[in-house]
Design brief:
The protein is about 45% helix and about 15% strand.
Length: about 375
């Protein structure tokens, strides 16, 4: 062992399979009878009559439950200016979840890179890696995760297109900060993201050089192609862009070039799922999801409505068409119905991982949804 190789480095080396593919922190293993690995996407849903504190407590309970049942990773998505979504600060939430879990991978699904300075993200996720070594993922998107006015406030600019257009350059800068490898002569050569690799190369340093793997997220072809060209793992937002799922996955696989990160493509898809003990309750919760999206799409975001609010709402014809279209892509019903829906989706897409996101007015219904899915696939008992 080299003098500067730490125990953490040795552990990572020992975990590598003979084909060099096992220790990348990316690939996952299916459990039970699930067709592929299952993971979790959490928007920290806040229902009407409930608080952000309630929602965050549910997230802790959900992370613990899914860890105990063999789900592979747990991601939190960045959103802003939405009363019903308490996940504006993924890094803060992930630090809290890290303190309440032991094994499940934790990450962002994603951080919207154009909203932030790359150095800040490198520092935040370097800190998370120090808190939960070997368990952190860094998923990145280029959308604002909010409306245009809020994005302008976040970015302190009115020219929002520049942030998205510069995404490849921002990604390259972030990667350099994470690896601490700006070339000589670069204006950032003497700037270091801490915690980070610079602590391994400093006199007396014993810090592991491991850093969180980067994922690219998307709902169209841009990130799919970029992830493929860079040889990075790709996460597609099937839950709100279902019509683009297969084309985007095809583009990713066709564009893929082997890299130091991956020798072959690896793609997961986000899937909206609601399993309930009876089909009627699942339909009621899904209708509430539809009303929530109507409000969001018409510029009136609010707390996540109850099923009673949704049933009492007088949907216009256009709203009803939108709700029918939106909810058609939510895999919902009894546990058996959800299992069948997920199996069919896997067959259509060949996704390497299914990341389930469940929305319901009450936290206990979200917990129950994941529990039912785990039972349906015979995942390890809690």
């Amino acid at each position: 062992m080299a003098a500067d190789e730490t125990a953490a480095d040795k552990t990572a080396t020992d975990a590598t399979a003979t084909d060099g593919t096992a220790s990348d922190g990316i690939r996952a293993t299916a459990h039970g009878t699930a067709p592929t690995a299952l993971s979790v996407l959490d928007l920290v849903t806040v229902g009407s009559g409930r608080t952000a504190t309630d929602a965050l407590r549910t997230s802790v309970d959900l992370a613990r439950l899914t860890e105990s049942r063999g789900f592979h990773r747990y991601w939190v998505a960045e959103h802003h200016s939405m009363p019903g979504v308490a996940s504006s600060s993924p890094a803060v939430i992930l630090a809290h979840l890290a303190a309440h879990t032991d094994r499940i991978r934790l990450g962002s699904g994603g951080v919207m890179l154009p909203n932030h300075a790359p150095l800040v993200i490198a520092e935040q996720f370097g800190t998370l890696e120090a808190l939960a070594p070997g368990r952190i993922d860094l998923g990145l998107g280029r959308a604002p995760g909010t409306d245009g006015a809020t994005a302008a406030a976040l970015r302190r600019t009115a020219t929002l297109h520049e942030g998205a257009d510069d995404f490849p350059e921002q990604l390259a800068e972030l990667t350099r900060f994470l690896d601490d490898d700006f070339p000589d002569g670069h204006r950032y050569r003497r700037i270091h993201a801490v915690p980070g690799p610079v602590q391994a190369t400093s006199p007396g340093g014993v810090q592991s050089r491991h850093r969180p793997p980067i994922w690219l997220l998307g709902s169209s072809g841009f990130s799919a192609r970029l992830a493929g060209l860079l040889g990075l793992p790709f996460a597609f937002a099937h839950h709100f862009s279902a019509q683009n799922t297969v084309p985007a996955l095809d583009l990713y696989r066709e564009s893929f070039r082997p890299s130091e990160v991956l020798s072959e493509p690896y793609a997961l898809i986000g899937v909206s799922v609601l399993a309930a003990d009876d089909e009627r309750e699942a339909r009621r919760q899904v209708l509430a999801t539809g009303l929530n999206m109507v409000r969001l799409r018409t510029g009136r975001p609010g707390l996540f409505p109850s099923p009673e609010e949704a049933e009492a709402h007088a949907f216009s014809e256009l709203e009803r068409e939108f709700v029918d279209s939106w909810t058609a892509n939510i895999v919902h019903g009894t546990a058996d119905e959800v299992r069948t829906g997920l199996d069919d989706l896997y067959k259509r897409t060949g996704a390497d991982e299914l990341m389930l996101t469940s929305h319901a007015h009450r936290g206990e219904l979200r917990l129950r949804s994941y529990e039912l899915v785990a039972d349906a696939y015979g995942l390890p008992a809690a």
